[in-house]
Amino acid sequence: MRIVIGEDSVLFREGLARLLADAGHDIVHTAGTGPNALAAIRESVPDLAILDVRMPPDLRDDGARAAAAVRDEFPLMGILMLSQHVETRYSLSLIAKGRFGYLLKDRVLDLSDFLDTLERIKAGGSALDTEVVARLLGAKRLDSKLEKLTPRESDVLALMAEGRTNTGIAERLWLTERTVETHVSSILAKLELGTTGHDHRRVLAVIAYLDRRAVPLPGRAEGAQQQTPTGSPN
Amino acid sequence: MPGVQREAYTEPVLWPRLASFGLAAVTVAALVAGLAGLSRITDPQQLTAILTRMGTGLPALMLGLLVAGRRPANPVCAFLCLAGASAITLGCMDAYLVAAAASGSTLPVSGHLVALTEGAWMMFFLPWAWILLVFPDGRLQDRRDVVVAWVLPAIVVAFNVLAAHAPDSSQGAYPATAPAFVEAEAAGVAATALLPLFLAALTASAVSPLRRYRHASEPEREQLRFLMLAAALVPTTLLLGWFGYLLLGNETIVVVGLAFIYAALPAAIAAPILRRSLYDATRALIRSMSYGCFAVAVAAMVLAVTSMAWNSDDNTKALVVAMATAVAVLMLLPLRRFAERRLGQWLLPARERALEAIDGLMQRIHEGTSQPEELEAVMRGAVRDPGLRIGYRLPGENDLRDAEGCALTSFTGSTRIELGGQTIGMLAPGETGRVPEADVLAVLAHPAELVRLRLQLASALREVEASRTRLVRANYVERRRLERDLHDGAQQRLVAVGMSLRLLQRHVPSGAAGVIEVLEDAVSELGTAVAELRQLAHGIRPSSLDDGLEAALAHLAGLLPVPIILELPPDAANGEDLPQLSDTVTATAYFVASEALTNAVKHADAARISLRLARTGDTVCICVSDDGGGGARPGQGGGLAGLLDRVNAVGGALTVVSPAGHGTLVEAVLPCGS
C-alpha cells in the first residue's frame, strides 16, 4: 500500500522506510514536522499514514493533532500512531473511529507482527500496543467484575483489547478459534457488555469498558468521566 | 532670660591661650624672684605658710594650661591661669617682702609697688568671679553680666589706687618706706566704701550660674552641676576646717581644707569643659568627690564623738579619736559607693541611663524577652537622641550594616565600638552630636557583638538555602538531560540497529537458517535492551512530566497495582488555565506524589488511597492520604526525609500527619514560579 511517514528522527524514519519498502510497500512521502506531514498526506492521499505522536514544532502532541485532522478529512484512511513511551491519552481518543492503531516504536522490531497490524488497520480494524493494554488492565479495579474472569479469559481480554481478531488471538495463545470464541462470549457476558459480532465494535466496547473503569485521564476528547470517589478524603 | 542676646565676651579666638601662656611666663618670673626671697627666710613656720599659699595656686595654673591646650577659645583657661598665677605671684611677693624685712635693706623694695598692692587679696576672688560669669561655654549671658564683668576689675584697680593713698596703707613689718603716695582721709573712706560694692559684684557673679541653669540645655546643665558640686564643697570644707581648728587647736586642718578647695575647685571647673576628651578624668573626679564626701562624713562623725570627750585628757582624747575613726570608716564605707553612684547619676545622667538601659537589655536577652537588635532603640531612648544610629561590621567586610543586614552609607562623625581590640561596629550620634562615654561604649559592645553574630548567622543560612536550591535544581536539570539523552540517543540508535538487522534478516538466503536464528536472537536482545532503557529513563525522570503535572500524576496513578482515587483540578487541560509551573516545581510535586503513593501501597495496608492536586494562584498542593495503619515518620535518610529536603529546597512546606492506626496524610504545598 501507499504510505506516508511523519517522523522527526531521521534514523528511525529512514530505517522504517527501508523496511517497509523492502516488504513491498510504497513510501510515497516522508516528513519531519507536523505541518509537513499533513501537507504531504493531503497531497498524496496514501492508504496509510504513520505518524509520530511528538513532532516539531511543538514537540508535544503535533502528531496527534495531525492525526485528528487526517481522520476528519479522510475517514477511510488508516492511521498508525507511534510513540516513544507509553501514554494512554492520545491513543484512546482516536480509537473510537476505527482504522486506527497505536504502537510503541520498538514494536517495529517485531516485523511480521507489525506488518500484519498495518494490514489490519487498513482493513478497518484497530491495534493497541500490549503495554497500553497492560496499563489498562494492570491496576486493580474498584469494580470486581474483572476478577471474575479466569486467567485464560484475562489473556483473551487483553488480546481483544489489542485489537486482534479471533484468529490472531488463537494463534498467539495456541488455541483453536472455537475455544477463543467461547472465551470471548464468556468474557462479554461476565462484563455485561452484550455486544457480539463485528470485531472492531467488540474491541471498542472492551476498551471503552476498561477505560471507564480506569483512572480518569485529563484532556480526553469524548466520554471523559471523572471517577467520583466513594467518600471524599476531606 | 529669653530674648536677650548672648554676647561674646571679646573678639576672636585664641587670646585666652595667649593670655594663659603669658601668665605662666609671669609666674615663672615671679618664682625666680620669689626664690631669691625664700632662700633667706629662716622661720620654718612662715616658710611653710608661704609655700602652702604658693602651692594652692599650682593646681589652678596647671589645669588652666591644660584647658588652654585643648580648648583655646574658652576664656576659662585664662582665668584659671590668672587665679593660679596670682596666688603664686602674691606668695612670691610676700616671701620677697618678708625676706627683705628680715635682711634689712639688702633687697630692693619698691614702696610704690607695696602700697599699690594693698588690695592684692582681691585677686584671690576676681578670677573665680570671672569664671563663674562665663562658665561653661566662655560667653557672658546678658548685659547685666557684662556690667558685672567690667565692674569687678574696675573695683580692684580703684581700691588699690585709693588704698595706696589712704593713711596706714603699708601694713606689716615693711620698714623703711615712707608713705609713697600722698595721703588723704577721703581716699581711705572711699576705699572702704568700695568693699560692699565688691561684695555685691561677687554675689552677682555667684548668682550668674544659677540664672544660667534655668535656661540651659541638658548638656550645659550637666556641666553646671559640677560647678555647684564644687561650690557646695567650699563652705562645707571651711566649716569642718574651723570645727577642727576649734577642737584640735591648730590651724593645720584649716589649711588642709583650703588646699583641698584650691585643688578641687579648678578640677571641678576644668573637668566638664574637657570632658569629651578626658572622660576618665571626670570619672576620677566623681570618684575622688565621693571619697571626699566620705572623708568629710568620717571627720564629722569623729568630731561629734570627740566633742563628747571634750573634757578628758589628751591620751583619752587620742584613743577616742582613733576608735571613732575606725568605727566611722567601717560604717560609712558602703555608703561611699552609693554616694559615687548618686553623684554619677546627678552629674552624668545620660551615662547612667545608658548603662542602666544596656544592663536591662542584656538581662531581658538572657530571659528571652528581648532581641539584641533592639540595642539601637534602647540607646536612642536612654540618651534621648532619636537620630542615633548603630552600624555593625561583619568580619571580612568593610561596610557597615544595620540590624536587619542592610548596608549603611554615610556614617560620618561616628565612634568605634570595639571588643577584644577589634572594631565591631560604629555609633553615630544624631542631632545632639553627643557621643556616649568610653565605658558606655565598652558595655554596649556586648549586645552589639550578639547582633553581629546573628547577622553573620542569618547571612550564612541564606547562603546555605540558596546553595541547596541550586543543588536541587541542578539535580532536576541533570535528570532531564539524562532522560533526554537516553531517549533521543541510545534508544533511537538501538531501534535503528534492530531495523537494520531485520532488513538484513529478510535478505539472508534461505539456506542459512543458522544466520536467521542468530539475527533473530540479536533483535530480540535489542528489544529487551530498549525496554530496559525505557524503564531506566522512567526511573530517572518519567517522560510523562513533559505533558504537564496532571498527566504525569494520572500516569503515575495508573502504574500502581492498587486503585488510586485521583482528584485533579477541574478543567485542567494541561494546566492551561493557570500559569505554567516551572520544571523544578513540577518535578518536586511529582516526586512527592510518587514517594507518598509508593509508601502507601507498600506499607499502609490501606483500603483506600487518594491523591489530590490543587492549585491556587501562587501555590501548588499535593496531598496523598490513606486509611491504613499510620505511623509514618520522616526518619533519618528515609524517603520522607528526602522529600522534606526537596520540598524545603524549593521553598515549600511538607506536612506528615500519621497517628498510629488512623491512616496517613502527606501534604506538600509548593510556591509557584520558583
Could you explain how this protein is built, in words?
The complex is a heterodimer of chains A (234) and B (674). Chain A has helices at residues 10-22, 34-44, 62-73, 89-95, 111-122, 130-138, 151-161, 166-173, 177-190, 199-213; strands spanning 2-6, 26-31, 48-52, 78-83, 100-104, 126-128. Chain A has 234 residues and is an alpha/beta fold. Chain A has a six-stranded parallel sheet, sandwiched between helices. The N and C termini of chain A lie far apart (57 Å). With 674 residues, chain B is α+β, with helices and mostly antiparallel strands. Chain B contains 18 helices and ten strands. In chain B, helix 5 runs parallel beside helix 7 (185-215) and helix 16 runs parallel beside helix 17 (583-604). Residues 171-176 of chain B have low confidence and may be disordered. Classes of the chains: A alpha/beta (234), B alpha+beta (674). The A-B interface holds A 9, 11-12, 15-16, 18-19, 22-23, 60, 84-85, 87-89, 105-106, 108-111, 135, 138-142, 214-219, 226-227, 229, 231, 233 and B 487-488, 491-493, 495-496, 498-500, 502-503, 505-507, 523, 526-527, 530-531, 534, 537-538, 543-544, 546-547, 550-551, 554-555, 557-568, 572-574, 608, 610, 612, 623, 625.
Summarize the structure.
Chain A has helices spanning 10-22, 34-44, 62-73, 89-95, 111-122, 130-138, 151-161, 166-173, 177-190, 199-213, and strands spanning 2-6, 26-31, 48-52, 78-83, 100-104, 126-128.
Strand content of chain B: 5-15%
The class by helix and strand makeup of chain B works out as alpha+beta
Strand content of chain A: 5-15%
Largest sheet of chain A: 6 strands, parallel
Structural class of chain A: alpha/beta
Task: Report the order of strands and helices of chain B.
Answer: HHHHHHHHHHHHHEEEEEHHHEHEEHEE
SSE pattern of chain A? EHEHEHEHEHEHHHHH
Give me the count of strands of chain A: 6
Q: How is the quaternary structure best described? A: heterodimer
Shape of chain A: globular
Poorly predicted spans of chain A = 215-234
Radius of gyration of chain A: 18 Å
Count of helical regions of chain B: 18
Helix content of chain A: 40-55%
**Beta strand count of chain B:** 10
Uncertain runs of chain B? 171-176
- Biggest sheet of chain B, strands in spatial order? 3-2-1-5-4
Overall pLDDT confidence of chain B: 80
